[in-house]
Design brief:
The complex is a heterodimer. By secondary structure, chain A is mainly alpha-helical. Chain A has helices at about 15-65, 80-95, 95-110, 110-120, 125-135, 145-150, 155-185, 190-200, 200-220, 225-230, 240-245, 250-260, 270-275, 280-295, 300-305, 310-325, 330-340, 340-355. In chain A, helix 1 packs across helix 2 (about 80-95). The longest helix of chain A has about 50 residues, at about 15-65. In chain B, strand 1 (about 60-65), helix 2 (about 70-80) and strand 2 form a beta-alpha-beta unit. In chain B, helix 6 crosses helix 12 (about 380-410) and helix 11 (about 360-375) crosses helix 13. Chain B starts with a helix and ends in a 20-residue tail after the last helix. The chains are: A mainly alpha, B alpha/beta.
Chain lengths: ~350, ~475
C-alpha cells in the first residue's frame, strides 16, 4: 500500500523544506485567523465606546445651536478622534452662530490644542481630521504648517489644507491659492468648486479673474481650468476679462470654457462668430451660449446649425432653439416641417419632445 | 533521463507551480494591504455631509435587460434613487421574450420618444425608444435580441453624457454607489474606467432594490462564494490598481469614459466576457498608442449580486467566466510582453494567463498526477503529503488574508457569529470546493478551445432576500 513507509518530515532535504514551509504557512494562517478575531473584539469594544460617547456628547453638540453648554464632561484621549469627527459633522451641517458655538465648545474642551498636535501626526487619518478641525476653528496658529501641506503630494490632504486656509483667512490666502488651484491638476475641479462656493462667489471672483488673466499671459495650460471655476463667481466682473481672453485666443478648450461664461447679450456678436468655428466642440459651446443670450434674429443661425455635420452641434442647436424664450412650440413645428434635411428635422423633433416632457 | 527522473522532475514542476501561483497572490495581497490602508485614510472624511458643486460629470446609467419582467421595475426604481447630482437611466430591452417591456411601460408610463438616434457603434435594429412621463431622466430602448454587449453598445449610442455606467438589471446598489465609483474620474482626469467591489447579496435584506441589512446565506455554496468574492475583489483587483493594471471591471457595476470606449470600438458582441475583454482592450490600445490613461478600482462595497445556490448553476457560471477570460486574453494577445505594455502587459497579463487562464489545466493535471502517482505507488507518501500540505497551506492563507483585509477595512458582516461562520468557510473552501472549481474552469477552457457559442448567460435567480423586505 502507498504510505506504508511514511516518514514525516520527508527525508529528502528539499522536500522537507517544502513540507516545513507548508506547515509554517498553516501556522501563520492560524495566527492571521486569530488576528481577525482579535480585530473584531477590538472593533466591538471601540463601537461600544463610541456609542457611549455619542450618547453623552450628541445632545451637547445639538445644544450648541442655541448656546454653549456650561458643564462639559472630560474627554479621554481615546475619544479625541470621535469628538473631532463629530465636530466636523456638525460644522458641515450647521451655519451661522451655531458654528461659532461649536468652536467655543471645542476650545472649552481643549480640543483645539489636540487638533494642533494631531496635525504633526504621521497618520494620514489623524492629519485629515486635524486639518479639517483647524479650518473650522479658524485657528491661525498652524498657518505655516497648513501652507506647507498645500504642497503635499496627496491631492486629498493638500485640498483639505487649501480649504482650511480659506476658512481661516480667505483674504490672506485666496490670491496665492488661486494660482495653486490653476497649477494643481490633480485637485478635482468639482471639489475645488465646492470649496470656492462655500467661501462665497463675490469673494472668489476677483482673485480668480486675476489668476485667469495671469495664466493667459504666462500659463495658458491652466486657463481652461481657471475659466471653468469662474462659473462659481456669478459676477459681472468676470465678463470683461473673459471677453478679452476670447478675443485673443485660438485654443479650443479656452474658447469652450469662456463661452460657458457668456451671459451678456452685448457679446452676442462674438458668440455668433464662434458658431462658424472649425472645431465642433466650439460650435457646441456657441450653440449653448446662443440658447441663453440669443436674439430673435439668431433663429436663422440656429436653424442652419441644425444641419451641422456634428450630431452634438445639431443637438445643442435644437435645444438652444427650443430654449429661446421668444420662440413658441408652434413656430418650431413650422420650422421643422420645412427643413429639407431629415437629420435636422429629427433633431428638432427630439428637442421639442424633450422640452415638452419636462 | 530515466522514468524515475522524469517523475521527480514532474512532481517538482507541479510543486513549484503551486508555490509560484500562491506566492504571486501573496504579493498581490501585500500590495492590496498598502493601497487599502492609504485609501481608507485618505477617504476617512468622506462620510461628512458635503454638497455637490455641479461640476461633477453627469453619468448615463445603462441597464441591459433580457427577460427581467419580474425584477426590472424595482431595479429601475432603486436606480432612480441613486444619490448623484445628474444622471440619466437608459434601459435596453434586448428582445426579451417575456413581459419586460410591458412591465416598464406599465410602471413608468412610457411614451414613444422621437429620438434622433446616432449609431456610433454598429448594433442590431432598434425597434423603438420610449421616455417616461413620470421620470424625464428615464428612457427605454426596445431592440432586436443581440446579446448583452450589443445592448450596452445601443445604450452607449443613445447616451447623452460623457461617462456611462453599465449596471446589471439584477444588481443591488447602495444610494452612494454611483458617487463612489465616479470619484476616481474626479480625482484623476486621465481615468477612463473605474470599477468597485461586488458582494454577495444572498442572506441580506433588500427593500425596493436597496440593501437594508447585511447577513449570511444559509446555503453553503453561497457562503463559500463570499470568501471567493472577498479574495477576488479585495486583493485580486485592488492589488493591481496602484500599478494601473486592473484587467477586470465587473459588468455588474462599472463606469467608463464614453469617448474612450467608442474609440476602442465599444463592447465586442462575439465574446462571453465582454466586460473583461473591453478593459483588456482599453489597456492594449492606450498602452500601444502611448495615450496616458488610468483604469482604477475602488474597494468600497458598492454593488451586491445574487450568487448561484446550486451546483448546476454555479458550474455554468464558472464555465462561462473561464471562456470569457480565454477570449479576453487571446483577443488582446498583442499586449503580452509588448515593449510598451507596461505593468498590464508585463505583469498582470502574464499573471492572468499563467495562473487564471492556464491555471485550471495545470492544477487539475497536477492534482490528477499526484493522486494517480500516489495510488499507483510511483509517488512516495512523503511527496504526496508534502504536496497536499503546501497546497492546502497556501490556499488557507490566501482565504484568511482576504478575511483579514475585510476585517481591517469594511467589516461588512456585523455579527461575531458571521465571522465565526466565515472562518469555518476559509478552511472548508480548500477541501474540495476550489478543486471542483478548477475542474469546471478546465471544462470552460475545453469548450472555448473547441469554439462552442456563448449566449446571454441566463442564471436561475431565487432572490430569496426580496421576500423578506
Amino acid at each position: 500500500m502507498p504510505g506504508d513507509n511514511l516518514t514525516l518530515p520527508p527525508s529528502d532535504p528539499l522536500l522537507a523544506l517544502v513540507f516545513w514551509t507548508g506547515i509554517g504557512v498553516i501556522i501563520l494562517s492560524l495566527f492571521m485567523l486569530a488576528t481577525v478575531f482579535a480585530l473584531r473584539i477590538g472593533l466591538v469594544l471601540k463601537q461600544r465606546r463610541e456609542q457611549r460617547f455619542m450618547a453623552r456628547w450628541q445632545p451637547l453638540f445639538a445644544q450648541c445651536v442655541d448656546s454653549v453648554p456650561e458643564r462639559l464632561p472630560p474627554i479621554a484621549q481615546a475619544d479625541h478622534y470621535t469628538f473631532l469627527k463629530l465636530l466636523s459633522h456638525y460644522h458641515e451641517s450647521l451655519r451661522g452662530s451655531a458654528t461659532h458655538n461649536l468652536n467655543l465648545l471645542a476650545i472649552a474642551t481643549g480640543m483645539d490644542v489636540v487638533a494642533r498636535d494631531m496635525l504633526m501626526h504621521s497618520n494620514m487619518r489623524a492629519r485629515m481630521i486635524a486639518v479639517a478641525t483647524l479650518g473650522h476653528l479658524g485657528d491661525k496658529t498652524r498657518w505655516n504648517e497648513l501652507r506647507l501641506l498645500v504642497d503635499d503630494p496627496s491631492p486629498l490632504l493638500s485640498l483639505a489644507a487649501m480649504r482650511a486656509l480659506l476658512e481661516i483667512d480667505a483674504a490672506a490666502s485666496l490670491a496665492w491659492l488661486v494660482t495653486v488651484i490653476g497649477a494643481r491638476e490633480d485637485w478635482p475641479l468639482a471639489k475645488v468648486a465646492a470649496i470656492l462656493e462655500d467661501i462665497g462667489p463675490d469673494r472668489v471672483a476677483l482673485p480668480l479673474v486675476a489668476a485667469a488673466e495671469a495664466a493667459f499671459e504666462n500659463a495658458p495650460r491652466q486657463l481652461p481650468r481657471l475659466l471653468r471655476l469662474l462659473e462659481v463667481a456669478h459676477s459681472d466682473r468676470v465678463v470683461p476679462a473673459v471677453r478679452r481672453i476670447l478675443q485673443n485666443t485660438n485654443d479650443e478648450q479656452v474658447i469652450v470654457a469662456g463661452l460657458r461664461l457668456m451671459r451678456d447679450p452685448r457679446d452676442i456678436g462674438m458668440v455668433r462668430g464662434f458658431a462658424a468655428h472649425s472645431g465642433w466642440i466650439v460650435r457646441v459651446g456657441a450653440a449653448r451660449a446662443l440658447g441663453s443670450i440669443g436674439m430673435p434674429e439668431d433663429r436663422k443661425l440656429l436653424t442652419n446649425m441644425l444641419g451641422d455635420p456634428s450630431w452634438w452641434v445639431r443637438y445643442h442647436a435644437a435645444r438652444a432653439l427650443v430654449a429661446l424664450p421668444f420662440v413658441k412650440i408652434d413656430e418650431l413645428r413650422k420650422i421643422r416641417a420645412v427643413l429639407p434635411d431629415r437629420f435636422a428635422a429629427d433633431m428638432l423633433g427630439q428637442a421639442i419632445a424633450e422640452h415638452q416632457s419636462k | 533521463m530515466t522514468f524515475s527522473d522524469w517523475l521527480t522532475a514532474t512532481q517538482w514542476l507541479f510543486l513549484l507551480y503551486f508555490i509560484g501561483i500562491n506566492s504571486g497572490y501573496v504579493m498581490l495581497n501585500l500590495l492590496s494591504l498598502g493601497s487599502l490602508r492609504k485609501y481608507l485614510e485618505e477617504h476617512s472624511l468622506d462620510d461628512l455631509p458635503r454638497s455637490y458643486s455641479g461640476f461633477e460629470p453627469p453619468v448615463s446609467v445603462l441597464v441591459p435587460a433580457y427577460n427581467e419582467e419580474a425584477t426590472i421595475a424595482s431595479s429601475v426604481r432603486s436606480m432612480l434613487q441613486l444619490n448623484y447630482p445628474e444622471f440619466e437611466i437608459i434601459v435596453i430591452n434586448d428582445g426579451s421574450k417575456d413581459g419586460t417591456l410591458a412591465a416598464l411601460q406599465r410602471e413608468f408610463a412610457l411614451v414613444p420618444f422621437p429620438e434622433a438616434y446616432w449609431q456610433r457603434i454598429a448594433v442590431r435594429t432598434v425597434r423603438g425608444i420610449y421616455r417616461s412621463t413620470l421620470h424625464p431622466s428615464l428612457r427605454v430602448i426596445d431592440k432586436e435580441n443581440g446579446g448583452k454587449a450589443d445592448a450596452l453598445n445601443t445604450g452607449i449610442n443613445a447616451s447623452r453624457y460623457p461617462l456611462f455606467c453599465g449596471v446589471d438589471a439584477d444588481s443591488i446598489l447602495e444610494r452612494e454607489s454611483l458617487k463612489r465609483v465616479v470619484e476616481p474620474f474626479l480625482e484623476n482626469p486621465l481615468t477612463i474606467a473605474s470599477g468597485g467591489t461586488v458582494r454577495i447579496a444572498n442572506g441580506c435584506q433588500v427593500s425596493s432594490g436597496f440593501l437594508i441589512s447585511v447577513g449570511l446565506p444559509k446555503n453553503p455554496l453561497a457562503l463559500l462564494q463570499i470568501i471567493e468574492y472577498l479574495r477576488a475583489f479585495l486583493f485580486g483587483r485592488l492589488g493591481w490598481s496602484p500599478l494601473n493594471a486592473v484587467l477586470i471591471i465587473s459588468g455588474a457595476f462599472g463606469v467608463f469614459r464614453k469617448e474612450s470606449v467608442i474609440k476602442a470600438g465599444g463592447y465586442r458582441h462575439d465574446t462571453i466576457g465582454e466586460d473583461m475583454e473591453l478593459v483588456v482592450r482599453l489597456h492594449r490600445i492606450h498602452r500601444l498608442q502611448r495615450i496616458p490613461y488610468r483604469i482604477t478600482f475602488v474597494p468600497d462595497p458598492i454593488c451586491w449580486t445574487e450568487a448561484p445556490e446550486s451546483l448546476r448553476v454555479l458550474k455554468s457560471q464558472r464555465v462561462r467566466w473561464q471562456r470569457g477570460l480565454s477570449e479576453s486574453l487571446t483577443l488582446n494577445l498583442k499586449l503580452l510582453f509588448h515593449p510598451r505594455g507596461g505593468a498590464p502587459g508585463w505583469l498582470a497579463f502574464p499573471f492572468m494567463a499563467l495562473f487564471e487562464w492556464a491555471g485550471p489545466l495545470i492544477e487539475v493535471t497536477g492534482y490528477g498526477f499526484m493522486m494517480a502517482g500516489f495510488a499507483l505507488g510511483v509517488i512516495s507518501a512523503e511527496a504526496f503529503i508534502t504536496f497536499m500540505v503546501i497546497v492546502f497551506g497556501f490556499g488557507f492563507m490566501l482565504s484568511v488574508s482576504s478575511l483579514l483585509l475585510e476585517e481591517l477595512s469594511f467589516h461588512i458582516y456585523p455579527k461575531p457569529r458571521h465571522l465565526a461562520i466565515l472562518s469555518i468557510m476559509v478552511i472548508v473552501e480548500n477541501l474540495g470546493y476550489r478543486q471542483l472549481n478548477s475542474l469546471w474552469r478546465l471544462w470552460g477552457l475545453v469548450l472555448w478551445a473547441f469554439g462552442s457559442k456563448g449566449n446571454w448567460g441566463e442564471m436561475t435567480r431565487t432572490a430569496s432576500w426580496q421576500s423578506k423586505s
